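protien #1 (seq + structre)
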Amino acid sequence: MRRNPFGVDICCRKGSRSPLQELYSPTQLELSNTAVLHQMRRDQVTDTCRANSALSRKRRVLTPSDLKHLVVDEDHELIYCYVPKVACTNWKRLMMVLTGRGKYSDPMEIPASEAHVAANLKTLNQYSIPEINHRLKSYMKFLFVREPFERLVSAYRNKFTQKYNTSFHKRYGTKIIRRQRKNATQEALRRGDDVRFEEFVAYLIDPHTQREEPFNEHWQTVHSLCHPCHIHYDLVGKYETLEEDSNYVLRLAGVGSYLRFPTYAKSTRTTDEMTTEFFQNISSEHQTQLYEVYKLDFLMFNYSVPSYLKLE
């Protein structure tokens, strides 16, 4: 048993250092520079949790059902909390390669639909309590985050403006139109496929929505999906430096020489400019209420208040 400077017990894998050891006591100089950046990101999360403890720790204890977003790779001692709309399809593909024991070699050969089949990856909630605690203590835990409103616009565009997403139109679109649109046509109420962004925002800030059921994972806050005030994440990757941060994780896991994060430019990607456009028609009152919903994500992951917001 080796102890690292941070007091985490690390059981060494045969013939190699664990990702946690590589992260906290790097052997290569260029990795140690990156380690400083990630220490700053960790500190930001810790400080935000401490400063907002009433908000961030509403839940005193996590239950196994809170852990269904944490994907486990036992072979490389990794735990990845996936956040929809933050490259989670490609990271699930990578986790399938890492846990597949030779079944896959190229992540991009795995169809996106296959990456989202729950049975293809093991999540932390499937373990016993002692097994969960052991893995939380000795595996490297990481997640990827994105500017909260850019992520929100990305979710809206994907789920409500694409004709093929009929399950979302039926499940959420019909409900949003029924509640938020005066004099909605019977056709709109039946199909739910033409939700406006303003209506989506009104639905998110409506207290009734939050009392009724948890947000869908595509627009749920990162702190509610991954519980960073209860789970100490060793590494916070950012969408803005996605390739760099992802390849750093792969290097720490000892697979960087043969596995890289898939590079391809998505032409439909939601950008900051696009997000600004979408917020043009949102009243300052609604912008302020929406910012309150996502405020902890902004603070925790060091995203400044967007310049286009007209907060009250």
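ok now protien #2
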Amino acid sequence: MTQVDRSRSKPGHDFRKFGTGNKKTLLEDTRKQGIDLRDALLQFHKKWFRTHLQFGHAHMSLMQLKKKGVTRQVWHDHPYGPEQLGKKVEAVPIKDSKWLSIRFPFPDLDSEYKSQPRRYISHLIGDEAPGSLLSELKRRGWVSELESGYHTPASGFAFFTVSMDLSNDGLDHVDEIIELMFNYIGMLRAKRPKEWIYEELAELKAITFRFKDKESPMSLAIDVASKLQCIPFEDILSSNYLLTKYDPDRIKELLDKLTPSNMYIRVLAQKFKGQEGSIIEPIYGTEFMEKDIDKETMQKYENALKTSNPAFHLPKKNEYIATNFDLKPREITKSEHPRLIVDDS
């Protein structure tokens, strides 16, 4: 599906390229274009890399790169514009799975790691408590699982995605599911950002960081090395976890981007196989069809954004967030045998 997304993006944008490479794209196609692949690779390396770039000299080497006039590339133009939005993509998965995904173009928020406004939004849209979007969709028997999150494919642009695992019945009610999602987003807008929700989220993330499990050394090294390009060294390990700057205006600004006109829909199901008018994505052979979302349906989504739904409300305050992490003193007993502490039903 990532490759389907790439194939649908703006013509000429780097995101549209095949990001992995195979024999055809790397060898056969380059020969047809008269490109010497090895020479192109060496030129790329010469421009962007320093052979002596080591962790101990990273700052010095980056300064030398800047003196050469080399700056890190940033794609400010989003690969999804008006012509790519307002669409519905129906694709055929390999597994017999049914999945709905709604994607919104988003700005690159990686530098806003101290406030993480997108995490506030994904925390609420992905909530499972009574009054949540998932709670209502489960009650109707349409969805069994929901997740929402933010992804930055490259510096300069990102996506915010809401994904759901559909039941057979849910597959027949995709439009109603999306209307309910916009009902919920409309409620979040009307209630405006709440500092107590942000503080709860900050406390939970701080606990996660404090008691974080060890990671694979290789995974950790790759992660921190990539973050060094945009996050100060002293914040590298904590940047995903510690929320220290509440920014309600930015949260509101991002919520305002979650609109029907700024989205496209992906539905995956085996039932779309063999549809008239479907095409085959050439790299992975994914069968899919792209359709315009008709004006009537778009208007329903717009109306849902402005309509209050009594099923939805903000979560209640969490009274069970730990604040005291001291070890409880252990009672000293002198006994050679185990003793019964509790005996109940």
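The domain at 1-9+80-195+248-305 is CATH 3.30.830.10 (Cytochrome Bc1 Complex; Chain A, domain 1).
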